[in-house]
Structures are given as structure tokens and as C-alpha cells.
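ingest -> validate -> predict -> emit
validate: passed (alphabet ok, no gaps, 78 aa)
predict: started
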Amino acid sequence: MNNLINGYIKDVLPSFFARYNIPKNVIEVVTKDIEDRIYSLLIRWNEIEFRRVLLTTGLEEATFYEPNVNLELRCFRI
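emit:
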């Protein structure tokens, strides 16, 4: 799982943001924030009720989020 997160953080997010001419320093700050949020959520991932609430909330909106990657990854953008 760690490789998937690292790939998303190091490859997918920066290239996505770069398409919008966002300054590199802003991309770094936002990417770091997203990385911190992902790992803070994963700490509680084995708590079934927490995970269900998280994914239910995220699924409502995640279908329309970009970049177009795995739906479960997009759920983290809540």
C-alpha cells in the first residue's frame, strides 16, 4: 500500500497540479498536506465503522474528482 501512496503523492498529484500552472512551492505544500491526511486516515483504517463512514462520505463526491484514479483513492479528497 505504501508504494501506491508514494506513487500517488510523487507522480500523480504533482503532474495534476502542474497542468494548472500552480507554483512549485504551492504544489509541495498541498501535496504534503494530502500525504499527511492520507496517513492519518490509514492509522484508523482497521476500525470498520470509521472506514465505512469515511468511504460513504467520500463516495458521494469522489466519482467526480480528478485525477481519474482508483475510486477509493479519490474518496480521500473529502
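The chain has a mean pLDDT of 83.
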